[in-house]
Amino acid sequence: MRTVIPIDPPHDPTVLDAASLGAAIRSARTRRRIPLVEAADALGISRQTMINIEKGGAGVGLPTVLRAAQELGVTLFAVPAMEREVVRQAIMAIRD
């Protein structure tokens, strides 16, 4: 079995696109040292679908991506645009 190398989460917690959400999901998976194939099996999806989620690739339905995020411990917040920067800075302050 291959060793899972933990990947740090994206520095900026703002999810702007599928790629940034995928990076957060990949970080959560690797920090828990779960191999990609094992995560895919647990979610009932193919290895390729898991790769597509983590790379922000096209063709993966939003419910599948959200379920992967939830199962791997990635939390998403819906924040009004006017409050986004305040929330972003608060999250970044907690990390630092």
From TrEMBL:
Pfam family, one: HTH_31
SMART domains, per the entry: HTH_XRE
Matching InterPro entries: Cro/C1-type_HTH, Lambda_DNA-bd_dom_sf
Domain HTH cro/C1-type: 25-79
Listed name of the protein: Helix-turn-helix domain-containing protein
